[in-house]
Give the backbone structure.
Amino acid sequence: MELCITTSSSQVLTLNNRLIKISLLTPLKNSNSHLRRNQTSFNSLKLSPSFSRQIHLHLQQPPLHRHTWRVSASSASSSTALGLDKDRLPADISVTETEEPNSRVRLSVEVPEAVCEDCYKRVINEFMKQAKIPGFRPGKAVPESILLSYVGKQNVQKATVESILKRTLPHAMSSVTGRALRDSVRIATKFSEMEKNYSSRNSLSYDVIVDVAPEVKWIPEDGYKNLKIVVEIDNDIDAQSASEQELKRRHKSLGSLKIVTDRVLQIGDVAVLDISATTIAEDESNVQKIPDAESKGFHFDTEDGDKVLPGFLNSVIGIQRGETKSFPLMFPESWKQEHLRGVHAQFTVECKELFYRDLPELNDSLADKLLPGCTTLEQVKETLLQKCHEVEQTAREQATDNAILDQLRKMVEIDIPQSLFEEQGRQFYGAQLLQVQANMKLNEEQLAILSSPKAVNEYLENQRENITNAIKQNLAVGDIFKRENLQFPTEELVKEVENSVAEFKRHKQEYDEDRVKEQVQEILEGAKVLEWLREHAEIQYITR
């Protein structure tokens, strides 16, 4: 029965038992920014292999910028941030860098004949060491023509192309070292085309596509330093009214329901209702049922009238057991289900049962039952009020953080890489899938369906706006942390990492300590940024 109004709760991250008021999932980062490409949290789901497969989109859009240079054959550095070892080349390769949309760079690589020939010789020598050709001792020199005949010219050619790629790719990636997102490198040229190219020209050319860390552009520049935030606070979280409602709820739980036999429904009663609804239209042929508003045996507490559709309570007050009432209502524009907003509906309600509450007198004798450990009613009220104050403060801080983060994403322009979008989306989907699995205990077949590429792609597309907003928030927070040179105590990081590792061990779960450290650091950084922003922002609170 979708008649109840519920307030939307914000995301709260917890670091062990410590509350972190930040409405982000774990930020992504590399060694220099909040952009580390890591699949650990997602892969830990142990889903089907196809679930974590990269989804590559080919964007057919005009390039934005191009630059060509020659990469020295004797360039230093033994490796890049991508973990690709460099091997000295006999000649320079030519690399043309073209900027593309979504923070993507295309590297067009031209490998000269000298490099290809050197790779060919290495491949021949390697085959010569491994091949066992009749009439020749293993490891001894074999005429090239005989070796090609035995191994196969096409196999040698494939091996040569592979060798060229392996040796030249690290050099080609030099220009994006420190900028490239891990696991985003992809050779765009088909292998068959490279084989054909090498066979006809004895040289090789290929394209590499790589996502790079996007630039965070603030509009206006440094606008985050002078934030003006309006925070809307739900009236439900007011400590005084919330504590009174909680006391009333606990008092009700001590009473009993008794059948009403001689009067109509009034405030304080509980009614069991069968409810149905249809749309209102001038043409009766267009009248449709509203399934979301239908319910059988709905227990309606008249003291919760503010939590149902406006006008519903007043329309059913006065109904008798066995009576049926019909009345029109309109779903407000603020209704949580978008497809019902503004809909005019005709409700039909049948009262199946009618009860009143028989409550014990509210005095000190009920104190321990209302709240174990309390001896007086006043003590119960004070304790509940204190707890509600804590909830109110937490909710206020959470609402403030959410308002700040929402403002930040509106102030930044970021050309988000596709690989980053997909990874953040997978993290969201993985967390959601874990929750579903915990609540429903899915079998292997159901899990396989939900973890299929099709299911993931549909989620990514349906949640594109939410995923994009989360990435903008994450990157904006990371950028502020660097710009303002914010820090947190090292001992706090060490302590939280130790606590997190202890939790993993206690639950006998596998973990990567380096990744745990990264995630803890990211949460602490995010909390530090929000703390700094709250101190420097102009914040106004409005109760709704």
Summary: Residues 1-67, 74-82 have pLDDT under 50 and may be disordered. The first helix runs from residue 40 to 43.
